[in-house]
Write a structure and sequence with these properties.
Elements lengths: L2 H7 L3 E2 L1 E3 L2 E3 L5 E5 L6 E6 L3 H19 L4 H17 L1 H12 L3 H23 L4 E5 L3 E9 L2 E5 L5 H15 L2 E5 L6 H12 L7 E3 L4 H9 L6 E5 L2 H11 L5 E5 L5 E4 L5 H13 L11 E5 H16 L19 H11 L2 H4 L2 E4 L16 E4 L6 H4 L6 E7 L2 H8 L4 E2 L1 E5 L3 H10 L4 E4 L14 E2 L2 E2 L5 H7 E9 L12
Parallel strand pairs: 1-5, 8-9, 8-11, 9-10, 11-12, 13-14, 13-19, 14-17, 16-17, 19-20
Antiparallel strand pairs: 2-3, 4-5, 6-7, 7-23, 12-22, 15-16, 18-21
Helix pairs in contact: 1-4, 2-8, 3-5, 3-6, 3-7, 4-5, 4-7, 5-6
The chain binds nicotinamide-adenine-dinucleotide.
Length: about 500
């Protein structure tokens, strides 16, 4: 689908979806912009506390009246219908995602399949939810069941927006909770298209609701709504901190998927070519706007010159350009403000003393839009800001280490702990380092390849809690233990003497 075909699919206005209907709740609208041109694409409803309240009420009613008591297999049927709709509209969804985020079309096409798979996967999980039995003969047979909690507020970021929305909506609905989604304000278009697909799947009204808007108004209202006991948030660490503060008064349960500064640790005995390929994939796909990006390369000094040279040669050849061009590997960054932020890190070279070995500028052939060259920073030291802070753009920082102990110390010398990637052929070392590195997830001799059954999430400042597989149910459901007396066990008699 071309850019102009895709533009024709964008609605003039993006509205909230409450109780099964698209609604205009207020007169306030904001612009959503095309990252390739910074021209307005559409107008988006700016939700306020009243819109959030209406959505939360609809979700609460649907929870109590129908959704929580529906058998898992019936919920699964709805989820599979949503997945079918997504696959039918795969090309439109991918093209709209590319238009709105600047992520190259080749990459968004793959993501839509993954996003649809989230619904299929959790549909299957919904039919397999089990409890636990605790036989305690002769007097008791105790058991524990998972019960849905209520309304979940789902707050999502602009990087891979559709993927991350489905990653929350699917387990939420599979568990028997109902949802109010607050999509990111810089990338609302695929949320709108997904909402149409969900509407067609004919879910009972109120089970799924969307309130668009800014974080500080719509997002904050959702977090402080008394009848939204669950908040699943993906975004920046500082936003997560604010959300936890604001939700504390109602003692909400939070799932926090936050920022990262994940290390790629390459030892001298690694498979050199595969490590180069994986490092480039992990850093420069999704425009470098990937939470699990391996944005800190720690390479053993004995192979560092050769490794940096191999990376530099490839990074110079990364094709930056129109995200609708199938040969493009790196599209424009999401927003002008974000471009400035990423560029400001590269500009620290002067004051911090690292070297911009490749890239670092706007490409000459793309004077408009938020284009940035793929960038390699060398001579980076662990305490520099570019080694400590999440840049969230196509910027790879290279640090050098001497031995295993130094590699582990360096890997752990940041406040984040989302992912780590370890490259070595020494099995014992691979496992030692994986266990010593402070992160929620490690990939050994691999790029990031997801397994939906495994716990996903970060440690330290990268998050709280895990989602994925049965771990998602730990967040979206609550255990209830039932103690059953089997007969006439002794009961101490009070006041009987
Ligand atoms: P962000 O924190 O700015 O915004 C995320 C969402 O929170 C948006 O919908 C925003 O409107 C909303 N929000 C902002 N302030 C709010 C408030 N006070 N109350 C309620 N909601 C509020 O993040 P972003 O810039 O959209 O996304 C990039 C960040 O997300 C990066 O740090 C990245 O690492 C992180 N991320 C993490 C994961 C993960 O799984 N750990 C995945 C993807 C992205």
């Amino acid at each position: 689908m071309t850019r102009s075909d895709t533009l024709a699919l964008v609605p003039d206005k993006i509205r909230h979806f409450i109780n099964g209907e698209f609604v205009d709740h207020s007169d306030a609208w904001f612009d959503d912009r095309d990252p390739a041109t910074n021209q307005s694409l559409t107008q988006v409803a700016s939700g306020d506390a009243a819109a959030v309240d209406q959505a939360a009420r609809a979700a609460r009613e649907a929870f109590q009246a129908v959704w929580r008591d529906l058998p898992g297999r019936d919920r699964a049927r709805y989820l599979n219908r949503i997945a079918d709709g997504m696959m039918r509209d795969r090309e439109a969804l991918a093209s709209l995602e590319t238009l709105d985020t600047g992520i190259p079309i080749r990459q968004t096409l793959g993501q839509i399949e993954r996003a649809a798979e989230n619904f299929r996967f959790f549909a299957e999980m919904a039919t397999r939810m089990t409890g636990e039995a605790f036989p305690n003969p002769p007097h008791f047979q105790n058991y524990a069941i998972r019960q849905p909690v209520g309304v979940a507020g789902l707050i999502t970021p602009w990087n891979t927006p559709l993927m991350l929305e489905t990653w929350k909506i699917a387990p939420c609905l599979a568990s028997g909770d109902t949802a109010v989604l607050k999509p990111a304000e810089w990338s609302p278009i695929t949320a709108e298209r997904l909402t149409r697909i969900i509407q067609e799947a004919d879910l009972p009204p109120g089970v799924f609701n969307v309130v668009h808007g800014l974080g500080e108004s719509a997002g904050a209202a959702l977090v402080s709504h008394p009848n939204v006991p669950l908040i699943s948030f993906t975004g920046e660490t500082t936003t997560g901190q604010e959300i936890m503060r604001n939700g504390a008064q109602y003692l909400k349960r939070f799932s926090m998927e936050l920022g990262g500064k994940s290390p790629v640790i390459v030892f001298e005995d690694a498979d050199f070519d595969r490590a180069v390929d994986a490092t480039l994939f992990g850093m420069f796909t999704l425009n470098g706007e990937r939470c699990t990006a391996g944005s800190r390369l720690l390479v053993q000094d004995s192979i560092a010159d050769r490794f940096e040279a191999a990376l530099a040669e490839r990074i110079r050849r990364i094709r930056v350009g129109d995200p609708f061009d199938e040969t493009t590997e790196l599209g424009p960054l999401i927003h002008e403000e974000h471009w400035q932020r990423v560029k400001s890190y590269i500009d620290l070279a002067q004051s911090e003393g690292f070297q911009v070995a490749v890239g670092g500028n706007r490409p000459a052939q793309w004077p408009q839009g938020n284009f940035l060259e793929a960038t390699l920073l060398t001579k980076v030291l662990p305490t520099m800001r570019v080694a400590q802070e999440e840049i969230f753009g196509p910027v790879l920082a290279v640090l050098r280490f001497h031995d295993e102990a130094e590699a582990v110390a360096m890997a752990n010398q940041v406040r984040y702990g989302l992912a780590a990637y370890v490259w070595t052929r020494d099995v014992a070392r691979a496992n030692r380092v994986s266990q010593a590195v402070e992160s929620g997830m490690v990939w050994l001799n691999s790029q990031n390849v997801r397994d939906l059954r495994t716990p996903f999430g970060g440690s330290k400042w990268s998050g709280i809690g895990r989602e994925g597989g049965v771990h998602s149910f730990d967040f979206y459901t609550e255990w209830k233990t039932v103690h059953v007396a089997l007969g006439t066990h002794p009961i101490p008699r009070v006041g009987a003497s």
